[in-house]
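RESIDUES AND SHAPES:
===
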Amino acid sequence: MSSPSVSLPSPSPSPAPSLLSVNVGRDTTDELTGFTPGLRTGIDKRPVAGPVAVAAPGPRGVGGSGLAGDTITHLHLHGGDDQAVYAYAREDLDRWQRELGRALPDGTFGENFTTQGIDVSGALVGERWRVGPELVLEVTSPRIPCRMFADWLGEQGWMKRFTQAAVPGAYLRVITPGEVRAGDPVTVVHRPAHSVTVSFLFRASTTERTLLPDVLAAGDALPEATREKALAYRASA
């Protein structure tokens, strides 16, 4: 006798790559964030409605965020053309939610773009995305956790946990400026021939420095400071 057939549910289709939210932050103080008295920060990013203009902000130390209305407080440490936009995947935020046992709304990691349907940390350095009808961005580097990030999250050992996970999200530079809004599609329009991902570059820059020479395969897409560091490491090896 044949066994009765069993109908299995169809797997849920993966969402099309898109922006779940566009997040900006204003310069806030310890009164709002609970940081060290007098410390100022723009890490508190919140989703905004309507279109947001995105353009190259200028070099580090002069330019801040690429998003109109977004604040970068410490220009010598953050922002500039190679860090014009910071993107983090909603799927990775959801994993952290489960691990930390707390809600992490869009923007909690200080990201400008909360995405869905795209592996942000698995993106290749030099990969280009079209976001919405006009904006074109190029992946440059991972986010390296800092004390400000740890204080903001308020989680014990956060810098170490974030580093060990090697899911840092990606900074992007602006190739073609444009306006974006929540719901805009994200389309990969160029994928380079090398295999240097954001996560690989993160590991090379933090826990596995012997990998640094290998990141040179990303060529001119690397931020100049990262390229110089990799060249110096290779020369000293």
In short: Residues 224-236 form the longest helix (13 residues). Helices lie at 30-33, 90-100, 147-153, 158-165, 198-205, 224-236. The chain has a mean pLDDT of 90.
